[in-house]
Amino acid sequence: MTAAVAATRTDEEIMRSLAALLVLSLGGCGDLPTTAPRPNPDPSETTFAMIARIGDIRAMATPAAGFGDTVVTVGKGGFILNVSLQNAGLVAHAAITDASYELRLTGDAAGAPLPERVVYTPFDGFDGSIYWVAPGQQVETWIGLWHKSAGHYDAGPYRLYIKRRPHSYTEPTTLPIQ
Question: Percentage of residues in the chain with pLDDT exceeding 90?
């Protein structure tokens, strides 16, 4: 038997196996639940990730590792920070609303203010603007999910560095003609 014939038979066997699996999986569809499972009402009791988005840049924090030593580099001194919390399947966590939770952004884990002149202004529970990061400056921020009624963090605070690119200036190589 040639290798081509052996390969053809193998392909035919694979196709029959796949067809059998499809028939078996479709036969069990009647047993699927008709309602989606309810989300856990307390985010501190679930596995989730905090996604911080600054422009097109996304950084992810997990309860075990935080943001790590992530540095987000921005090109201007003012920008929007948006944070979402997602469960293990990276689906938005339905139990987290701005009625019960708020995003807190501080200068250290103990809640110190941001460096001089750097200002965070919240828009709603999970996003806001950051202004006055100077060219070349790197700012250490701590982002946490504050549970308003309980008076504590349910997630974080996690450290995230924000660095602004320095202004670029190049000395002209030739003097202009006058």
Answer: 48
Residues 147, 44: Cα–Cα separation, whole Å:
10
> Could you give the CA distance from residue 138 to residue 105 in angstroms, rounded to a whole number?
15
* Residue range 78-126, pLDDT digits in tens: 999 999 888 765 555 557 888 889 999 999 999 999 999 999 999 988 9
Say which DSSP state 10 is in: H
- The contacts of residue 126 (CB under 8 Å, 6+ apart) are 82, 83, 84, 98, 101, 102, 103
Which pLDDT band holds residue 34 (cuts at 50, 70, 90)? very low
* Tokens standing for residue 22: 């499809």
Query: What distance in Å separates the CA atoms of residue 157 and residue 147, rounded to the nearest whole number?
Result: 12
155 by Cβ neighbours in 10 Å (0-12 / 13-18 / 19+) ranks as: buried
Beta bridge partners of 138: 163
The tokens of 137 are what? 């400056």
Paired tokens of 169 = 């200036």
Residue in the block written with tokens 């950051």: 130
Taking alpha carbons only, the member of 143, 41, 4 closest to residue 83 is 143
- Residues 46, 93: Cα–Cα separation, whole Å: 10
